[in-house]
Amino acid sequence: MEAKLNPRKIRDIVDGFHYNELEGKGLYGLAGNLTIQPEYQRNYIYNDGKKDVAVIDSLLKGYPLGLIYFNQPIQDEDKFEILDGQQRITSIGRFFKGLFVVKDTDGNEQYFSSLSKHQQDQILETELLIYDCYGTEAEIKEWFRTINIVGVPLTAQELRNAVYSGPFVDAAKKVFSNSSSAIMSKWANFVKGNPARQEVLEVALDWVAQREGTSIDSYMAKHREDSDCNELQTYFEAVIDWAASVFEMKDNSMQGVAWNTLYENYGSQAYSPTEMTMAAEDLLSDPQVKSKKGIYEYLLGGKTATHLLNVRVFTEAVKKKIYKLQTREAGQKGISNCSYCAIGHDEKKAKIWTLKEMDADHVTAWSKGGSTEESNCELLCKSHNRAKGNA
Ligand SMILES: [Zn+2]
């Protein structure tokens, strides 16, 4: 890859700048010769009133903005794309277009148009240090993958979108990266992550890749030239629609559950949504249930796998106290300190187990309403505790 330093004034960069609010993208500059956001770049994420303002403050104070890299797809042709620096240039363009304000030294909000002529010129005359890069697609992408990007690091999926850019990624981003689409709020109930940072797309890809027993990378490589993402979208929607048809409530713990696995394992069984939703709500409000995410599989599987709920256990202090009480009483009676051993007929009838050889057991099982308090704690030898089973 060749890289040639070619500084340009902001005045030239913002010439023809256009910002698309709907897509959240800065599009063009350099009088139409610069594509600010090629499809493989992430959406604009500096518009938080801090990073974008910081860019303008830096310019007004004469601080450097760092290096910017342009890609020149065809050598000697005057067309460029931004490889790195899109966030900074979009911030400058949006300010130039009057889309946000900065505060001056007196604390007054200023649009570009309300700055003094001197300050406007200071911004427009600033030279940005830009490298024009020319190389094969593979070289450029390899470089893009490895550079240490200034500012917000790329998410894993943003990188994959860059590496496997093409019609499939374009189609998939239209479906999965649009934060304002109505369906996104339904999906957000089940999926964690920011659509604009490609985190919803990542989940969708992960699910369809898992079904095919492959990785996200190989799925994207295989489908790179597809003109649509129908398979991806259909499977994702099937999983979400199924989950929404069984559990009708909203709870944060539903985000990030492996719904795809649950769909594969339980999707063909019949459930009553009213009963499942009520049961889930009961467990969600049970302070003894430590793993809220485990509730869904526990219920779908018929309430047997209690370990999924990670039910609260007795503390070491309670165990020690109960052990002492039980052992003293057993010693006086000449029987085992495990009540199950004590009623048996073998040599363990009078065995005194050490604390390490015993486990704490809920006298009344948690699943039958028993609490995790001292009064409901009994120590049993390990084999009887295992035999008794349910926590
Ligand atoms: Zn025992």
Percentage beta strand: 5-15%
Compute the separation of the termini in Å: 63 Å
Per DSSP, the total helix count is: 17
Provide the low-confidence segments as ranges.
none
Heteromolecules bound:
zinc ion
Succession of helices and strands: EEHEEEHEEHEEHEEHHHHHHHHHHHHEEH
Rg, nearest Å: 31 Å
Shape: elongated
Q: What structural class do you assign from the helix and strand content? A: alpha+beta
Helix content: 40-55%
Spatial strand sequence of the major β-sheet: 1-11-6-7-5-4-3
How confident overall, as mean pLDDT?
Answer: 88
User: What's the total count of β strands?
Assistant: 13
Biggest β-sheet, characterized?
7 strands, mixed
Outline the secondary-structure elements.
Layout (H helix, E strand, L loop, with lengths): L1 E4 L2 E2 H4 L4 E3 L4 E5 L4 E2 L15 H11 L6 E4 L8 E5 L1 H11 L5 E2 L5 E2 L6 H8 L2 E2 L1 E5 L2 H10 L9 H8 L3 H10 L5 H6 L11 H13 L4 H8 L6 H17 L12 H8 L6 H12 L10 H6 L15 H18 L5 H4 L15 E5 L14 E5 H7 L3
Parallel strand pairs: 5-7, 6-11
Antiparallel strand pairs: 1-11, 2-10, 3-4, 4-5, 6-7, 8-9, 12-13
Bound molecules: zinc ion (ZN).
The site of zinc ion has 6 residues, from helix 16 and strand 13.
